[in-house]
């Protein structure tokens, strides 16, 4: 039985590391989503380049980058909805009627 040696390129390893860092940053509160999205875009680019050479690490980095962008978009939507909901409570609508 002959084992096929799996090749891992440095670009694939970089994509994997960037994908892991981006997915961790998207879950940390009060960090900018732009940082995690920028790192995720790099993970997608590097992952695509490594995926063309058959590197499994590149594929995983590519997938993690896409998942990070989806999670960042969902969190931005929820934050926007929450912000609109909080601002809908105007002080004039919460005042008590005059006696």
Give a quick precis of the structure.
The protein is mostly helical and 99 residues long. 69% of the residues lie in helices and 0% in strands.
Keywords:
mainly alpha
Task: Describe it.
The protein has 99 residues and is an all-alpha fold. The chain has one domain (10-81). 69% of the residues lie in helices and 0% in strands. The longest helix has 32 residues, at 56-87. The protein starts with 9 loop residues before the first helix and ends in a 12-residue tail after the last helix.
Which shape, going by the Cα principal axes?
rod-shaped
The proportion of strand residues reads under 5%
Main sheet makeup = none
Measure the end-to-end span: 91 Å
Write the layout of secondary structure elements.
Layout: H1 10-26, H2 33-51, H3 56-87
């Amino acid at each position: 039985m002959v084992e096929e040696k799996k090749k891992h390129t440095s670009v694939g390893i970089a994509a994997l590391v960037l994908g892991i860092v981006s997915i961790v940053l998207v879950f940390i509160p009060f960090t900018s989503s732009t940082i995690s999205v920028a790192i995720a875009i790099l993970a997608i680019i590097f992952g695509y380049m490594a995926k063309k050479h058959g590197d499994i690490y590149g594929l995983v980095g590519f997938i993690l980058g896409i998942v990070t962008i989806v999670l960042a978009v969902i969190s931005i939507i929820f934050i926007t909805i929450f912000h609109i909901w909080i601002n809908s409570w105007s002080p004039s609508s919460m005042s008590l009627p005059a006696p």
